[in-house]
Amino acid sequence: MLEPERIVRLEQDAVVLLDQRRLPLEEVEVRCESAGALADAIERMVVRGAPAIGVAAAYGIALAAAQGEDLAEADRILRAARPTAVNLAWALDEMRDDPSAEHARRIHADEVERCRRMAAHAAGLLTPGTCALTHCNAGGLATGGFGSAVGALVTAWERGLLAQVWVDETRPLLQGARLTAWELEAAAVPHTVIADSAAASLMAAGEVDCVITGADRIAANGDTANKIGTYSLAVLAHHHAIPLYVVAPTTTLDPSTKDGAAIPIEERDPAEITTRFAARNPAFDVTPANLIAAIVTEDGVHRTPYTRSLAAVRVTA
Ligand code: MRU
Q: What is the pairing mode between strands 130-134 and 162-168?
């Protein structure tokens, strides 16, 4: 698996990011020498995935502190870079009392450790021979190392539980076809990329045993925002009586947001879809809690009613 510091790291004068827009064709790094440059890189998705942008933002605050930048301003611009993933705000809140490099590195290491723990819990939901379907990229790239949903799939493969993974290409930016497939290939996990619209017929043919995704923000009642298209998969999975599991760290829980209707959904530049015609580009959608068979965090497997099961879970950093 990718070393955490290859995905995102703090150097003396920069936050260094592996440019996820250019993978898998090229492995190129981007150096962000100010919080402003980092916020721009987060917005442009050089680094993406909820926990990874939180980690990057923590490093951005540490860099700003070392450079004597205005920390309130650094916090403001980083916080505004992407609105849906609550990990960004969580990491910035964490850095307020201690903006040191050591603290940012601890946040990074803790996120990777959370992934290892949640992956072990989530793998336990699979039975031998499972064909799983995943959407977007919830791997090491998205988390700063190891991965949430992809970490669970790799762990399940190592335990002999997984037959193969269907990888949704994930329109419009192809995080599945470019990033998840690349990570599964590196881990030698059998995988097949499919068009997002192929999921229904594969489910109808009995070729999908479960759907496993990450999350960008989980409201108090379990409603979950994740990459656009997750909700469609959840409806399909429900129709075909297939469980959908969400695997995410407690840093993705947002107890202050009552339900999915209150989650801010990022609308991105329509040019990511087409520059020729009118387009609309919501980057996330919300899957209602009643379509989620389990939410797995580093603390274990949580079942409905989530208002109760998630209330018992605390962010452990
Ligand atoms: O727009 P992205 O690529 O940042 O969206 C990422 C996702 O939706 C992931 O599934 C989510 O952040 C979970 S990552 C562990």
A: parallel
Exposure string for 23-54, b = 16+ CB within 10 A, e = fewer: beeeeeebebebbbbbbebbbebbbbbbbbbb
Residues 75, 110, 168, 216: which is the catalytic one?
A: 216
Query: How many whole angstroms from 136 Cα to the centroid of ligand 1?
Result: 6
Ligand 1 center–CA 228 separation, angstroms: 9
150 is written with which tokens? 């992809």
Contact (Cβ atoms closer than 8 angstroms) between residue 78 and residue 71: no
Contact 84, 43 (CB under 8 A): no
Pocket of ligand 1, beta carbon within 6 A: 48-51, 85, 136, 138, 142-143, 148, 175, 213-216, 226-227, 283
pLDDT digits (tens, 9 = 90+) for 92-128: 999 999 999 999 999 999 999 999 999 999 999 999 9
**165-223: pLDDT as tens digits:** 999 999 999 999 999 999 999 999 999 999 999 999 999 999 999 999 999 999 999 99
Whether 216 is a known active-site residue: answer: yes
- Burial (0-12, 13-18, 19+ Cβ within 10 Å), 188: exposed
The 3-class secondary structure across 20-87, one letter per residue, is CCCCCCCCCEEEECCHHHHHHHHHCCCCCCHHHHHHHHHHHHHHHHHCCCCHHHHHHHHHCCCCCCHH
Indicate yes or no: pTM above 0.90: yes
* C-alpha 201 to ligand 1 mean position (Å): 25
Both tokens of residue 170? 């994930």
